[in-house]
Amino acid sequence: DKAQHYLGTCLLQEKQYEPAVRAFESVVAKYPKFDQLDQSMVNLGIAWYGLAQESKKPADFAKAEKTLQTFQDRFPKSPLVARALYYRGESLYQQEQLEGAAKAYAELIQKFPQHELTADAVYALGVTQEALKQTSQAEATFADFSKRFPNNPLITEVRMRQAEMLFESGDFAK
């Protein structure tokens, strides 16, 4: 169990997604009482997401999303929930399930305001709101990003997107 888990972790770090998926699937299937099962499940979802990024197959994004949702249902108190929410949001976005993606990002932002992925989730939420034509919400999300993460590498793009949302809404005073 531990050997398969660590093998999967190494493969995931090396971006060898297909063998990582196999390793984590083995852990999840064969060792239901494994003490790091939550981590194996999250890593399985992330490995599916990485594989989907390479394959561009909607079915792989769907497998990532389903695995991460199953993890979240099974381990709602795990410290890895924020990571699962982020990659669930990304997987849903790639499947053009924008409402679901927005909900995943918003949940991460609300429940884990200090998490390392929160800035990325705020940005992704703004982009998703933009895609949903929710101009005023996207502008507010980008403004929130600018306030909370002024030194983030994405700040220039965020300010540009915020300006575009203001322009689109005709709010030239801001």
In short:
It contains nine helices and no strands.
Task: Outline the fold blueprint.
Elements: H1 2-13, H2 17-30, H3 37-55, H4 58-74, H5 81-94, H6 98-111, H7 118-131, H8 135-148, H9 155-169
Helix pairs in contact: 1-2, 1-3, 2-3, 3-4, 3-5, 4-5, 5-6, 5-7, 6-7, 7-8, 8-9
Walk me through what this model shows.
There is one protein chain. The chain has 174 residues and is mostly helical. The chain is built from 9 helices and no strands. The chain is elongated. The mean pLDDT is 96.
Question: Which short descriptors sum up this protein?
Answer:
174 residues; mainly alpha; 9 helices; elongated
The Cα radius of gyration reads 18 Å
What gap, in angstroms, lies between the N and C termini? Answer: 56 Å
How big a fraction of the residues is strand?
under 5%
- Please outline the major beta sheet: none
Number of contiguous helices? 9
* Total beta strands: 0
Helical content stands at over 70%
- Give me the secondary-structure category: mainly alpha
Q: Please state the average pLDDT score.
A: 96
Uncertain segments? none
Shape: elongated
**What is the string of SSEs from the N terminus onward?**
HHHHHHHHH
